[in-house]
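Record 1 of the preview.
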Amino acid sequence: MPKVNEERKWAWVGLNLLPSLTPRRRKALLERFGGPEEAWEALGRGPLPELFGEAANQIWEERRKAHPHEELEKAARAGARIVTFEEEGYPEPLREIPDPPPVLYLLGEWREGDRMAVGMVGTRRATSYGVLVAKKLGQELAERGVTVVSGMAPGIDTAAHEGALLSGRTLAVLGTGLGKPYPAGSEKLMARIAEKGAVLSEFPWDMEGAQWTFPRRNRLIAGLSLLVVVVEAPERSGALITADYALEQGKEVLAVPGPITSAASVGTNRLIREGAKPVLSVDDILEELGMLPLLRERPKPVPELPPEAAKVYELLSREPLSIEDIVAQTGLSHTKVAQILVELALSGFVEELPGRRFLGKPG
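->
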């Protein structure tokens, strides 16, 4: 892999700034001139109709107006980085997909642990049921150390991020530049995601979304994920495009079943009919990841505990629960459950997780 000096990086960033230089045209350009620096210089000398036909003048004009050093400065001022696929810090799973983006804008950090990731996508016009499910699954996956990947769009995407933020890490892939996040006003959410994960984009800093940019970013959501879960999707939905990308990349697609009367579940129900694994609980996802047998190896209740405490401990030995969950499942009062949790924690039988949830530990 060539060493990425400053000039080479500028060239990659510059080529990425040219909207008319499609991946196919970029490939032809690089094959013709041998590398990004040579290609960048060649574009600056004049139009190349033999390569680009009628688009040659437009690409040349875009090249004249492009300033890669300014792009790097914009990212730096915002605390973000631009990494090429030749540099460390570039997410490793994306190197393995067809047509990996040569340049990525990163706010936050992709970590090696983010290889254990699940994509969660769905409609922007989510129902209350879809929002509830996405948030619940996002939180439960993050509690178990799984990174949740989505697109930060309204609806299911946002709910998945919000759930994951309660307990762990999440990655957001934008269909716009980082300087123009969609929807407007989502800067606070973007900052929270960057604190507990990363926000990524392959598009120039100030680029606004277009009809083609959101479907294109969906291949990166699939690429960063071991599998993709579709929570809600109408008959025609960008979430189904993400599912198609996942299948093309050889990954499993899971879907949450919904009411047959709900237009928001037409796409997910069809996926299940066509062979997608239905998601009835987080265990269905964990099973697909090969994590469920490990999670089932939880400590058994300790006989010496008083009956009420043993009942609570047995529940917590299976899965993390909130105080409200324990109250609902045991019939004990909120005060009594809180008292038992304090006693179990002092005895080393219970640990508190983010989001005020509790999990049993071996005694």
